[in-house]
Design goal:
The complex is a heterodimer of chains A (415) and B (176). Chain A is an alpha/beta fold. Chain A has 15 helices and nine strands. In chain A, helix 7 packs parallel to helix 13. Chain B contains seven helices and five strands, in the order H-H-E-E-E-E-H-H-E-H-H-H. In chain B, helix 1 packs across helix 2 and helix 1 crosses helix 7. Classes of the chains: A alpha/beta (415), B alpha+beta (176). The interface between A and B is medium-sized, with 24 and 22 residues.
Chain lengths: 415, 176
Amino acid sequence: MLLPDYYEFCCRVKIVAGHDALEKIPELLTERGAKRPLIITDKGVASAGLIDIVSAALKDRLFADLIADNVPPDSDLRVVNQLAKLYQENDCDAIIAVGGGSVMDTAKGVNIVVSENAADLMAFSGVGALKRPLKPLIAVPTTAGTGSEVTQVAVIKDHEKHLKMAFGSYFLLPDISVLDSRMTMTMPPLITAMTGMDALSHAVEAYYCLQKNPLSDAHSLAAVRMIYHYLPIVAENPSDRNARLSMAVGACLAGIAFSNSMVGLVHNLGHATGSVCGVPHGICMAIMLPYGLEYNMHKREEAIAGLLLPMTGEAVYRETPPAQRADKVVSLIRQLNADLNTITGGRHARFFQEVKDREGKPLVPREVLPEIARAALSDGASIYNPEDTDYEDNLMVLEAAWEGIPLDRNKIKRG
Amino acid sequence: MSIVKDIPSAKKPFKRAYVGIFLWFTGRAIQAAAKVDKEVKKEFDNLPDDFTFSLGCLPNGPSMVIGKRNGAVKYLGGNPGQHKVHVRLAIKSVDAAFLILSFQESTALATTRNRLITDGEVPYALAVIRILDIVEVYLLPKIIAGLAVKRYPKQWSAGRKLGGRIGIYTRTILGI
């Protein structure tokens, strides 16, 4: 077992989970002396009827009629400032963020502006610029994937100046995360599959990347067990509320794990593919996950083999010879992608060649792979990957992931 | 009698001197490597014209500053305060700096142990780390360089290693 000489771990988010967890929000806000929250969400969440469920859970016990549903798919500085103004003009005293990653990031940005009376959000970018607690923030995730309800980072884009501002601080952790099965019940199978694979990639990468530690490991293993077991179930039976809640908890556990142990090659190449080709993040994660495992196998075989136990249980783990356990983990993840592909009628892509837009046009033409490989050199996730990566390594992995063939491990450069 | 006991800060002159000399030498070696090694030159070519970075330890140094000036890469001394720095790599203490710069801990491991603060845009910081890794491979014997970098570049030709070493050491010592 890899036991680091030194490590750090922090998660001070109160987590409230259940089939009726939303009803607890008024009490939680009262405990923090807040009475007038601003609800931040996006149009997709609102049109799916999820804000109605939140409102119904809060009504009669809280003055919560101030709902802003104009968060764009990409967080935007202009919207952050607009919402901060709305918060201040209405004397709000807390924020409830209902949505996915962009809504969470926007809410965190708004919280910085209103708590610090910040005229320039840029002054608080970077790591450690925030020095004191912010206003109460409650995160209500509507996907079981990003884990941003328990992460200490936010990314806000200034589309006018073409700037991407990153913020990192323990003060950005939401005070409370509310995981309620009703919030993910209406997610269609394809979105369920890709967000679930995003969560699995957090849990798995957190278990083998350089900053792993016994506390993040505990969260990773629990997350892998829940996500691997329940993801095919929710993809097939979207209205299974117990499975939905389990996925929400699994994604939250994975979020805690990766925000403490960080992620590596899967996210490195996934971010680059997303930015060059516009492929949704979850699809990139699903495709890249087996390749991240294969690429790092020679350095992390023992850790990867350890994932077999939470995935399959004790009987299969014992039956599998130790030398084959890590390979079996990779093949089971490939099989999971194949199963999700079947469940979604072929829409869940297993490799980049299969990724198409709504018109059926390929989103990742083979000729853009060199551009993706170069873009990945500018992504910070490479720092935490166990094995080093360069342009040639990136291209080799991308080509295998494009074709959908296992990585030729003999070609991986070793020091 | 005072109820408060003064605890003077440890000066650690040996570690401080080691770190100072190492940074001074590495700074000059980066200037040399930018002329000798194509990969280092390419990394600098992709950075802005006035790009400047510093590597040092908190709270008061020692540090080194490297910058691109009129197309050439220069070692700019040990005072980051005199320059507009695009990337600042700061090791949190002289003890941590000693661990890293005496190769008891790789840069990657030091990052995971939260011993390094990185200020600046991530793509620039990653380019600086790649440059530092290449220069360490040139300056150090394989057995030590293997501890300093994540992956020792076995695929480099003997000519690149030997020629590069001679060129970089010569230029570093002469300061050219």
